[in-house]
């Protein structure tokens, strides 16, 4: 199920000599980052421009902390498979988190990855574990150097009522899709969100390729997922449309 995305990343990596991937959206970003770190060949460095749950560090072979006010890249030589690089720990509403890197640190890290030709995977959005979300004014936090953005859609939110239980920032999602609060979230609303310049397309750098991943994990309305129709409606908007279950980790 990951073959299409992996092939695209490896193709861009070979073509450009380096690939910086930003993951945005909701419903599987962190799971996707872990999948990419596991399946991409050679060393892979993962990080975040926002925050990660502190539990995520256990899924990587190595976790390195880069102190917030330091501009000196930690020693990363010797990375053979995958590594998570984050800021220090912090507590948010009683939950332990790992802070993201600063803009300056991300630029330094990207230079290092470019020089070493190591894929860089960045979780660039937060969704509080909802399957769907809409971005606030400052979101998503996509670094300007990104050359591939993958928008993740949690199809578990399909036909669920539009509220905060299923959609992070549900009021904004309502405004972007013209769907009233409490109404079932149909496929057409998700497509409208993806095509909206303040929705799925928000803050994607001009030079970046655009892909969308429909994460089918937890979907109980699979008969409504018309893959051919989705691909037709997103043609010319996204460079790649993928479907899969990113909860099926090794």
Structure, briefly:
The protein has 250 residues and is α/β, with parallel strands linked by helices. 26% of the residues lie in helices and 24% in strands. It contains six helices and 13 strands.
Protein architecture, described:
This protein has helices spanning 3-16, 29-39, 103-116, 170-177, 187-195, 227-234; strands spanning 20-25, 44-48, 51-53, 62-65, 82-86, 89-92, 95-99, 120-123, 132-133, 148-154, 167-168, 209-215, 240-244. The protein is α/β, with parallel strands linked by helices and 250 residues long. The strands form 3 sheets. An 8-stranded parallel sheet has the order 4-5-2-8-1-10-12-13, sandwiched between helices. Helix 6 links the parallel strand 12 (209-215) and strand 13. The two termini are 13 Å apart.
- Proportion of residues in extended strands: 15-25%
| Strand and helix order | HEHEEEEEEHEEEEHHEHE
Largest sheet, if any?
8 strands, parallel
Mean pLDDT: 93
Total of DSSP H or I helical runs spanning 4+ residues: 6
Radius of gyration: 17 Å
Report the count of strand segments.
Answer: 13
Strand order of the largest sheet: 4-5-2-8-1-10-12-13
Give the overall shape, derived from the CA principal axes: globular
Report helical residue fraction: 25-40%
């Amino acid at each position: 199920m990951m073959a299409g995305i992996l092939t695209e990343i490896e193709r861009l990596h070979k073509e450009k000599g380096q690939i910086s991937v930003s993951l945005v959206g909701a419903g599987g970003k962190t799971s996707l980052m872990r999948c990419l770190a596991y399946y991409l060949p050679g060393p892979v460095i993962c990080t975040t421009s926002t925050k990660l749950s502190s539990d995520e560090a256990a899924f990587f072979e190595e976790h390195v902390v880069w102190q917030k006010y330091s501009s000196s890249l930690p020693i990363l030589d010797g990375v053979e498979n995958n590594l998570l690089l984050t800021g220090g720990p912090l507590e948010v509403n009683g939950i332990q988190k790992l802070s993201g890197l600063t803009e300056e640190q991300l630029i330094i890290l990207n230079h290092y990855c470019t020089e070493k030709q190591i894929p860089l995977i960045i979780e660039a959005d937060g969704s509080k574990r909802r399957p769907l979300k809409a971005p606030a004014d400052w979101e998503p936090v996509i670094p300007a150097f990104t050359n591939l953005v993958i928008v993740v859609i949690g199809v578990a939110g399909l036909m669920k009522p539009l509220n905060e239980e299923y959609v992070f920032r549900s009021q904004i999602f309502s405004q972007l899709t013209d769907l009233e609060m409490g109404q079932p979230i149909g496929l057409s609303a998700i497509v409208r969100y993806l095509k909206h310049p303040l929705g799925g397309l928000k803050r994607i750098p001009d030079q970046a390729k655009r892909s969308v991943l429909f994460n089918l994990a937890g979907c109980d309305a699979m008969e409504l997922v018309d893959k051919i129709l989705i691909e037709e409606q997103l043609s010319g908007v996204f460079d790649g449309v993928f479907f899969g279950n990113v909860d099926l980790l090794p």
